[in-house]
What does this fold into?
Amino acid sequence: MLTTRRSFMVLGASALSLGLAGCLGATPPVTFDLTSASGTPMRRRSSRVVVITLPKTVQTYDSQRVVVREAGNVLSYLPEAQLSDTLPRLVQTRLLQTFEASNFPNIGRPDDQLRVDVTLATELQAFEIDVASGNLATVTINAKLVDETRGMIFASKSFTATQPAATNPAAAAIAGLDGALKTVMSDILQWTARTA
It folds into this structure.
């Protein structure tokens, strides 16, 4: 009985060692960042305070992983690559920085404790490498402007940009998505400046 128990413990320890070796030997994912758009021309039509909320999205995009869309609407993730933060938080930060880089007056986040006139609410509808459409980095963001005084949406528009991008290497995929995102953020900035 003692011999059997000792053999079981030795086998268990060996299996644990092999499992840990496998985990430690796995290549960690490369972390990529996204950048804000800079130098976007805009003319502000008012001085109302605008707050950018955290973008809403489906669970597929609400992570640090990069989505790849294949034929038949099959979704997977880019292997061995991740973003520096969850996509909604990263997009909110880079969108705010895009506004700030263009000297958009009276812009902030909800936790800045500003007296809010207008909320810029966004929804991430696509942020992916579309392999089925010929390796296109595709970014689609729907934006709404909410008048907080009257409690109503007074403007809404969907913004899309695509850019050629390969899935290998991962850096090429991220570069394509980053370029498409910057185009969308610049368009949202100009639209907000005209509308809000």
Summary: The chain is about 35% helix and 30% strand. The CA atoms of residues 27 and 80 lie 8 Å apart. Helices lie at 2-25, 87-101, 170-195. The first helix runs from residue 2 to 25.
